[in-house]
Amino acid sequence: MNAIEIKSLSKTYDLKRKDKLHILNNIHLNVKKGSVFGLLGPNGAGKTTLLKILLNISFYDKGKITILNQPHDCPNIKKRVNYLPEKPYFYPYLTGKDFLTYMASFYNNIQTSTIDDLLTEVGLKNQSNIKIHQYSKGMQQRLGIASCLLNEPDILFLDEPTTGLDPIAHKDICTIIRLLKEKEKTVFLLSHELSDIETLCDHIGILHQGNLIKTGPIENFVGSKEYKIIFSCVEGLPEDPALLHARLDKKTLTYTLLIPADEINIYISIASKYKLKTLSVENIQKKLEDTFHELIKINNI
Predict the structure, then answer these.
(1) DSSP H/E element including 291
(2) What does the DSSP assignment read for 120-155?
(3) Backbone angles phi, psi at 156, to 5 degrees
(4) How far apart are CA 57 and CA 50, in angstroms?
(5) Please, what sign has the CA dihedral across residues 103, 81, 150, 159?
(6) 203, pLDDT greater than 90
(7) For residue 105, which of 30, 157, 208, 282 sits 20 to 30 Å off, Cα-Cα?
(8) Topology of 2-220 in CATH?
(9) Please, which residues have CB within 8 angstroms of residue 3's CB and are 6 or more apart in sequence?
């Protein structure tokens, strides 16, 4: 079941010269319920615009958006989603608990025990009576997530939740996102932290110049395992198709060969046949960062 379905979504801005600036071009996207979906893209790709459209705070030209099997502008949807912006604002002279109590007043029947439970869940139980202006950025981000969970949303939209955090705070936010996934909450995550996307997300999409250039399971973006083999051969490189892509290092007079992990036995046979001297074997895997840069480069207009 999909939590979010987007079909043929487009948005443009009219310019003074009667031209149109295309912000989003024919976007098709499905986000599965209970998954963590990561949206990647360079600055200006259209990520924030898409997020605002999903939250019904920005208009679009054409297309169809369904959230939790209802039109995204249905009033009931607002009760079932929540959003943490990249730079949330807090009342600095309220305590953390006072702030959540104030935010809870916008909803119906939220008990004090719920607020206490949320403060514990995000690791702020012992800091709940400290004024927010004394909080670190990481503590403020955790408080922001707690405020977004007051209405027990089915979908949580997070815009750059780990940007600018120290390593400990960064880890804390990632842990909270994993806990949300365990509770089968759907998380729609915008981030420039590719390592976070790679470790947290089930599915991702890459948006570039208003186009969703690729989307799918994280496995489709992280390359299959390969072996990097360095070997030498006294009589020169044998003319064998399996060694066709071996690269010679003229300084060391050694060869480097990349082969898929499931072809390692083929290399062993060839090494034995031609008496190759294997100097090292390194297990490597293509990272999301590599795929991201390749796709952006290919799709530059």
Answers:
(1) helix 288-298
(2) HHTT-GGGTTSBGGGS-HHHHHHHHHHHHTTT--SE
(3) -120, 125
(4) 10
(5) negative
(6) yes
(7) 157
(8) Rossmann fold (3.40.50)
(9) 31, 32, 33, 34, 35, 67, 68, 154, 155, 186
Strand partners, 153: none
Query: Cα(184)–Cα(97) distance, rounded to whole angstroms?
Result: 26
- Whole-number percent of the chain with pLDDT over 70: 98
Model confidence over 22-80: pLDDT tens digits? 889 999 999 999 999 999 999 889 999 999 999 999 999 999 999 999 999 998 998 89
Domain boundaries, the chain: 2-220, 225-285
Backbone φ and ψ for 154, nearest 5 degrees, come out as: -80, -30
CA dihedral 192, 196, 202, 206 (to 10 degrees): 20
CA angle 65, 38, 284 (to 5 degrees): 145
| Nearest alpha carbon to residue 177 among 232, 231, 226, 121 | 121
In b/e form, how buried is each residue of 40-50, taking b as 16+ CB within 10 angstroms? Answer: bbeeebbbbbb
3 touches 31 (CB < 8 A): yes
User: Whose CA is closest to 8, among 189, 188, 212, 296?
Assistant: 212
CA distance 300 to 291: 14
Which CATH architecture group holds 225-285? Answer: 2-Layer Sandwich (3.30)
Reported pTM: 0.80
Q: Residues 105, 92: contact at Cβ < 8 Å?
A: no
Render the burial of 139-164: b for 16+ CB within 10 Å, e for the rest.
Answer: bbbbbbbbbbbbbebbbbbbbbbbbe
Residue 95 is given by DSSP the state B
pLDDT higher than threshold 90 for residue 291: no
